[in-house]
Structures are given as C-alpha cells and as structure tokens.
Design a protein that fits this description.
The protein is of the alpha/beta class. It folds into 2 domains: 111 residues, Alpha-Beta Complex (Aspartate Aminotransferase, domain 1); 236 residues, Type I PLP-dependent aspartate aminotransferase-like (Major domain) (Aspartate Aminotransferase, domain 2). The chain is built from 9 helices and 14 strands. The chain has a 7-stranded mixed beta sheet with strand order 2-10-9-8-5-3-4, sandwiched between helices. Helix 1 packs across helix 6 and helix 7 packs parallel to helix 9. The longest helix is centred in the C-terminal third of the chain and has 22 residues. The mean pLDDT is 97.
C-alpha cells in the first residue's frame, strides 16, 4: 500500500533526494568509497558543499554581503548561538508557539529580552498584530511557521531594526526577500534534508559587535571563515540537502513551489471548512501552508481515534496532532505530492458518510 507521509518532522523528502543519497552511500562520485566514509576534505565532497551553498544563494536570491553556512546542533542550538553572536544587551521576540518560547528563554541568558507580543492566551492559534518593536533592541526574532499550532507569518516584516527568523519548517516554500533579514536559520528535517545539518544565512556586517568573547565553535565567524569546514560537517545530510535543492530547482524554484503549496493547502482547508465532522483550530488569516491543524467538530469528539485508524488503513500516516494539543495535523511540506492531500480529503469525505 502506498504511504502518504504527513509527519511533521522528520518528514517526507523528495524521492529524488532519497534515491540519490542511497546511491552515494553505496558509492560516492566514482571514488569506490561510500559517502559515509569519504573525507570531508576530498575534492569530491568540497564540491558538494560548494554547490549546496551556491544553490542556496540562487534559489533564495541571496544578495551580496551574506554568508550561508551549514552547522550541527539543530535550530535548538541556534536559540543560544544567535544571541551569543548578535545580542549586545537587549533583544525583542515575538512569541507565537513552543519553539519561539524556547528561543526567547535561551536569549535571556545573554541580556534583556522583550516579549513584544504573545498568542499564548489562545493556545497560539493566531499571529499577534499591532505590536510595537523597541527600536533600541539589537534584533527582533520571529518564528515564521509554527509546526505544533499551525500558524505562519507569510510576509517579510518591516520592523526598523535587524530582523531574525527561524524558518526551520517553511524555508523554500515561498519566495522571501532575504535583504529584509539580518539572519535566517533552521533545522533541516522539514523541507530540506534529514536531521543533522542546520542552515544559517547571515548578513556579514552583523558580526563582531557584542564585545564578548565567543567560544570558537559557537562563533559564526569561525564557520564563515572556514566555509562550514572548521570541523567535520554532517556529510550525509549536507549531500541530501544538495539533492533537495537540485530537485527544487527542477520544479521551477520557490515561486513555483509556493503556487503548488497554496493549491495543496486550499484543497485541505476547503474540506475542513466544508465537512461538518471537522473544524480548523487557527485564525483563517494566519493559517499555515506547511502544517494544517484541525480537530473533530463539536459532537464528534469521540470519533478522533476512529478517524486516525480509518486514515491509517488507507495509508495516511503521521496525522496525529502534537501531544500538547491533540487533534490532527497534516504537514504538507514541499515534497508531499498533491495526490496525498487528495487522498486525505477523500478519506475525510468517506469517514463523514460512515457517520452520517
């Protein structure tokens, strides 16, 4: 039975990425060695790193004056590494969910942190509006997509101070104006590669201003200077990321991907809004294109487990909502084909008929 993979992360990857990585694990670049045992200093792997960096810049139209680096530690390490490198005394954070809250908590170790607004009062089911960003803060941090609660900031904000964004789960899903950001970071295990590599896009002139001594491995400048090769990088995830970037370019790039993502999301949101058994959990204007959250409607709550079983029997996996909120979550990342969304919609319609 075909599986339709709606897991939130680690999540679905393009089949091209999986196939090419398998080949390289068996033998890499005609070397007679596996990708897993090749030297990261070899000319073959250096070429992989160089191409991945170049494609990152090409696909996101990253301007001059920015660096792209590949690190370890996931986005969670960036919660601390970011303020370590950028915060002189004060930073501002928008609190829109679990990961934004964790980033804010880590930043408090490095100076004053202003929570400019929070949507915690309604279980993070909306993006705050009409807040004021303190203009004396060193930067303003946002989490563009909130995987647990299903909200997304889908525009590049104008805030008057350096803007920093965690784009772990929506990078490459839509065009962004990188020049609006001082730094963008994210873990890979959503739209890019298996867990193990983290990307950072940073405007070079942001560095070296804090006045503090930064440990070598936690200093962005270290990794910029050594072109992500200061220590051994996560070779297999970097190679997989390159394959995803190649696949993305072949699909027409991020502008083409956004159109596909909007179409997929609209298919599912329209069914959620139509089907009397289900209801969405997020303010409509803030709905994510990447993580679509919904629950059983009033009167049908007892059927939640039944629907998960019904869906699983049809090859639909990964639909259970995060343990903190329950319900359902369909993650519709770039690599998820439209046919999988249609299969979910069909299952929802079939389930409705069985309970009518």
């Amino acid at each position: 039975m075909k599986k339709h993979n709606f897991y939130a992360g680690p999540s679905i990857l393009p089949q091209f990425t999986i196939d090419e990585t398998i080949k390289a694990i068996q033998e890499f670049a005609g070397s007679g060695l596996s990708l897993m045992e090749i030297s990261h200093r070899s000319k073959e792997f250096v070429a992989v790193m160089d191409e991945a960096t170049a494609l990152f810049k090409e696909l996101l139209n990253i301007p001059e004056g920015y660096s792209v680096i590949f690190l370890g530690g996931g986005a969670s390490l960036q919660f601390a590494m970011l303020p370590y490198n950028l915060m002189k005394s004060k930073a501002a954070y928008l609190n829109t969910g679990e990961w934004a809250s964790k980033a804010l908590k880590e930043a408090k170790n490095f100076g004053e942190v202003v929570e400019v607004a929070s949507s915690k009062d309604k279980t993070f089911n909306y993006i705050p509006k009409d807040y004021k960003v303190p203009q004396d803060a060193d930067y303003f941090h946002i989490t563009t997509n909130n995987t647990i609660y299903g909200t997304e900031i889908r525009k590049d904000l104008e805030v008057g101070i350096p803007l920093v964004a965690d784009m772990s789960s929506d990078i490459f899903s839509r065009p962004i104006n990188v020049s609006k950001y001082a730094l963008i970071y994210g873990g890979a295990q959503k739209n890019l590669a298996p867990a193990g590599v983290t990307f950072v896009i940073i405007r070079n002139d942001m560095l070296g201003k804090t006045g503090r001594t930064i440990p070598t491995m936690l200093n962005y400048q270290t990794h910029i200077d050594k072109e992500s090769m200061f220590n051994t990088p996560p070779v297999v995830p970097v190679f997989a990321a390159l394959q995803t970037l190649k696949w993305l370019k072949a699909q027409g790039g991020v502008a083409a991907m956004e159109k596909i993502n909007i179409r997929k999301a609209n298919l599912l949101y329209d069914e959620i809004d139509r089907n009397p058994m289900f209801k969405g959990t997020v303010a409509k204007e803030d709905r994510s294109l990447m993580n679509i959250c919904f629950v059983m409607n009033e009167g049908f709550e007892a059927h939640e487990k039944d629907f998960l079983t019904f869906a699983s029997e049809r090859g639909l996996v990964g639909l259970k909502g995060h343990r903190s909120v329950g319900g359902f979550r369909a993650s519709t990342y770039n690599a998820l084909p439209e046919e999988s969304v249609k299969a979910l919609v069909n299952a929802m319609q079939e389930f409705e008929k069985t309970k009518a």
